[in-house]
Design brief:
Blueprint: E1 7-12, E2 27-32, E3 37-42, E4 48-54, H1 64-72, E5 78-83, E6 93-95, H2 98-106, H3 115-128
Parallel strand pairs: 1-5, 2-5
Antiparallel strand pairs: 1-6, 2-3, 3-4
Length: 140
């Protein structure tokens, strides 16, 4: 699988597990907190191969250091995003699409400091790893 086909998965709430059909080779793990952002790339043997810690992340998906880190990644097969609150809808791993991001946004009242940051991280990873953003620009 190439970078332009990286799968994005949201892991929300606690409990619940999902077994992937086939284990990807390299996974980007994204943990967006209320003021920080932590990214880890895990290799095929679950080893950490690359990291980025932004202790004072401004929550913008176009943050310079975040964009640079994502642009330098290669061979990422999947992206896992930790989202603080999945409400009653998301209790385990879920493939991210526009419907899922809208549902996460709708839950922002339950975790107002974390949900918008998680969505910004999703947008940043999708944009750089060639996946459609939540709000793509209008077509011609």
């Amino acid at each position: 699988m190439t970078d332009d086909s990286a799968r994005h998965v949201v892991v929300a709430g606690v409990g619940g597990t999902a077994e992937p059909a086939a284990a990807p080779g390299r996974i980007l793990v994204v943990n967006a907190g209320s003021s920080s952002l932590k990214l880890r790339v895990l290799g095929p043997a679950d080893e950490i191969t690359t990291t980025l810690d932004l202790d004072q992340w401004d929550g913008r998906p176009d943050h310079r250091e975040l964009g640079q880190f994502l642009c330098e990644l290669s061979g990422v097969d999947a992206v896992g995003h930790r989202v603080v609150h999945g409400g009653s809808r998301f209790g385990g791993a879920t493939l991210i699409d526009d419907e899922v991001t809208a549902a996460i946004a709708d839950l922002s009242d339950l975790a107002p400091l974390h949900q918008p940051r998680a969505l910004a991280a999703i947008d940043a990873a999708r944009a750089v790893l060639h996946r459609p953003s939540r709000n793509p620009p209008p077509g011609p």
